[in-house]
Write a structure and sequence with these properties.
Layout lengths: L7 H12 L8 E4 L2 E4 L4 H17 L16 E3 L2 E4 L2 E4 L1 H8 L7 H10 L10 H11 L10 H16 L12 E7 L3 E10 L2 E11 L2 H4 L3 H15 L1 H4 L3 E6 L4 H4 L7 H9 L4 E6 L6 H6 L12
Parallel strand pairs: 6-9, 9-10
Antiparallel strand pairs: 1-2, 3-4, 4-5, 6-7, 7-8
Helix pairs in contact: 4-5, 5-6, 8-11
Protein name: Reverse transcriptase domain-containing protein
Keywords: Endonuclease, Hydrolase, Nuclease, Nucleotidyltransferase, RNA-directed DNA polymerase, Transferase
GO molecular function: endonuclease activity; hydrolase activity; RNA-directed DNA polymerase activity
Length: 303
């Protein structure tokens, strides 16, 4: 494949996915030219590795042995530390970030905020803290790193140290989504309940546009569910999904035939999923409620 073609990355990814199609999610994960082989024990990992290497021979894939690591308990994959505990931040990158001086220019803020984006998935307060710095980075007047900016900068650095370990999905268990909507934003948490304990996989939130802010309460709550399912689609498609919401009317809206066209359109979007809606008291839905009260921009709005 020649270099420089705009479709080359997507074509290469499809090629790799096709080669390992029957092994993906069973013993190997593939991203472009990087793939990880795993197993529950040393013997199973060795057996899986043999199958993957045999597939490489059959398809004439050439490996760079200097970049290969075999039979390790943890490693850095796509900027994250992967181990039997779950997914963590790369500690080497965190240590570098902690040594950064206080930003003195707009460029410094943008570089710091960009480097902190790894927190977006695994730290529920990231977007709230980063919003203040984002505002400072677009100042048209003289740059001013005030006390509020310094507080947000400090909180983000502390978050890098205390970022939680999020879990990789277990495909043998149903997924659970906690959703909530406030007057101006929606929030969602993807997780799985294993041994009666909720393991968090992903946090997400987004700010509504002016039109969405005028929606009725039921519309906002359903918008939160649609946002969550589009955001987490790659995880949940084909799996059982339990949706927790503090808006009881949503349990019955899927059976109504005379609802608004907008709601019908959203309901149709959700038809491809295996959904069970469960009532959850607002006080028990704290994380999603907290996320829905952040003013953030995450993805394109639903009209």
């Amino acid at each position: 494949m020649p270099f420089g073609l705009c479709n080359a990355p997507a074509t290469f990814q499809r090629c790799m996915t096709s080669i390992f199609s029957d092994l993906i999610e069973e013993m190997v994960e593939v991203f472009m030219d990087d793939f990880s082989v795993y197993g529950a024990s040393f013997s199973s990992c060795l057996s899986n590795l043999c199958r993957v290497l045999q597939r490489c021979e059959e398809t004439n894939l050439v490996l760079n042995w200097e970049k290969c690591h075999f039979m390790v308990r943890e490693g850095i994959v796509l900027g994250h530390k992967i181990s039997e505990k779950g997914i963590e931040l790369d500690r080497a990158k965190v240590d570098v970030m902690l040594q950064l001086p206080v930003p003195k220019t707009v460029k410094d803020i943008k570089e710091f905020s960009g480097s902190c984006r790894v927190l977006q998935k695994i730290h529920q307060g990231f977007l709230k803290d980063s919003k203040t710095l984002d505002k400072a980075s677009v100042q048209e007047t003289d740059f001013e790193f005030d006390e509020e900016c310094h507080k947000s900068w400090t909180l983000l650095k502390d978050a890098l140290v205390s970022a939680p370990i999020v879990q990789a999905p277990n495909w043998d268990h149903p997924f659970e989504i906690m959703c909530d909507a406030s007057d101006y934003a929606v929030g969602a948490v993807l997780g799985q309940k294993i041994d009666k304990k909720l393991n968090v996989i992903y946090y997400a939130s987004k700010t509504m546009d002016d039109a969405q802010c005028k929606y009725a309460t039921t519309e906002k709550e359903l918008l939160a569910i649609v946002f969550a399912f589009e955001k987490f689609r790659s995880y949940i498609v084909g799996s059982k999904v339990i949706v927790h919401t503090d808006h009881a009317a949503l349990r019955h809206i899927f059976a109504k035939k005379d609802t608004k066209p907008r709601l019908l359109r959203w309901i149709l979007l959700l038809q491809e999923f295996d959904i069970e809606v469960v009532d959850k008291k607002g006080v028990e839905n704290g994380v999603a409620d907290h996320l829905s009260r952040m003013r953030v921009e995450d993805m394109s709005p639903h009209q």
